[in-house]
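Assess this one:

_____
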Amino acid sequence: MLTGSKNALKGVGFFLGGFLLSSIGFHDAILVMAIALGLVWLASLYLLREDLDKSKNKPKFSKMFSKSREINILSAARLFLFGARDVWFVIAVPVYLSSQFDWDHWRVGSFLALWVIGYRL
């Protein structure tokens, strides 16, 4: 259920990205998203101010790693694997769809949104 809701949210992001690119262009879309993120950040500072810095246990950075070298290597491999997958879906696949099929931003964003939402159903 968690993966499905996460994928649905990613799909909404692809729809929104395709819409913004089609309607206002790249630079303005980046500006709109930066402003939205800034507003979310300000809202979180305001709404969560009582809960900030209330952690009783503040582990050191070195405690975030496992004592097992193998587990740390596996964790690093997963980090790079998921990063590469995200770069593939966010950059390479949209560029391919746009260049090979002559799809506009809206069509590419819609296709990827439907794919990301639907492939886990």
Remarks:
- The longest helix spans residues 69-101.
